[in-house]
Write a structure and sequence with these properties.
With about 280 residues, the chain is of the alpha/beta class. The chain is about 45% helix and about 15% strand. It has eleven helices and ten strands. The protein has a six-stranded parallel β-sheet, sandwiched between helices. The protein has a four-stranded parallel β-sheet with strand order 1-2-3-4, with helices on both faces. Helix 6 links the parallel strand 6 and strand 7. Helix 8 crosses helix 10. The mean pLDDT is about 95.
Length: about 280
């Protein structure tokens, strides 16, 4: 019912873009403008009902013009749909996310969402190990303090975390820039923007191999890439960056170079090209 209501609500337009599988059906039903589908994730990952998973896959079969934000999604959706998928990529805002020259030593930072597949529990476990092996480390989190406290209680952890809430993008850039190491430990990402933002701010990152970050994260060159859910590897990579300053400096320099290649201008050019196709 919601699909039909949304379809009727879409005004006349030149370009009509779905951004999530229910809206893909609504865009198709509206039959207005050039119809596109911006696929930003493997959406079967978010639904648990088997019938709903089938609907997600059916959305990939609709006669819309799909485009994706990462190469792994391009491969996945081409396999699911049997049609050619256009890659447009993603980016970070380099007018905001650049080095702030406020780097602090022994400071490890992360974002905690209160969502299990974002790697919240692995993050807290890694923080516990890091605090035990590096006594004067400063551990910081942007995000859900209640979830973090619950995970600490669940695992009988007792260590100090500094929490930051509701940061604006400029404040987030300062947060990234002041970090010695930024951790991104998600299980799966359509693209994964936060590490790219942190890299743009000149911060060495430990990134789990969560698919979307493969577009830009290169192990031992511009970041340290570790297996998903592997707390020991997350901890070891973090300690390596904390302890080996020369190695970390090389990672930071390459991280800045990498982030500069991921500009919104390039994404816009690719999108305009597909919008103008006959």
């Amino acid at each position: 019912d919601r699909i039909y209501i949304l379809a009727r609500s879409i005004p006349d337009c030149d370009i009509n873009i779905a951004t999530y599988y229910p809206t893909a059906f609504a865009v198709y039903k509206s039959n207005k403008g050039k119809m596109f589908y911006c696929i930003q994730h493997d959406e079967t990952f978010f639904v648990h009902d088997p019938a709903e998973k089938k609907n997600v896959k059916k959305s990939y079969q609709l006669p819309l013009r799909p485009f994706v934000v990462s190469y792994w999604l391009k491969d996945l959706i081409e396999k699911e749909s049997g049609q050619k998928i256009t890659y447009v990529g993603s980016a970070s805002n380099q007018e905001i996310f650049f080095p702030q020259n406020n780097k602090q030593e022994r400071t490890v930072s992360a974002i905690l969402r209160g969502i299990s597949w974002k790697g919240d529990e692995e993050l807290i476990k890694a923080y516990s190990q890091i605090s035990q092996k590096f006594k004067d480390v400063r551990l910081r989190i942007v995000g859900n303090e209640q979830s973090a406290r619950q995970l600490m209680k669940k695992n009988n952890f007792d260590f100090k975390i500094e929490f930051f809430m509701n940061l604006s993008n400029p404040e987030l850039a300062e947060f990234y820039s002041s970090s010695t190491v930024f951790l991104f430990v998600s299980h799966i990402e359509g693209f994964g923007v936060p590490p790219l933002e942190a890299m743009g701010c000149g911060t060495a990152c430990v990134i789990t191999d969560c698919m979307g970050t493969r577009d830009y994260a290169i192990n031992n060159k511009n970041s340290l890439v570790v297996p998903i859910k592997d707390v020991d590897k997350i901890t070891d990579a973090t300690l390596k960056l904390l302890l080996k300053k020369d190695f970390r400096k090389k990672i930071e320099i390459n991280a800045i170079k990498t982030a500069k290649n991921w500009r919104w201008k390039n994404v816009v050019i690719r999108m305009e090209k597909i919008f103008n196709e006959k």
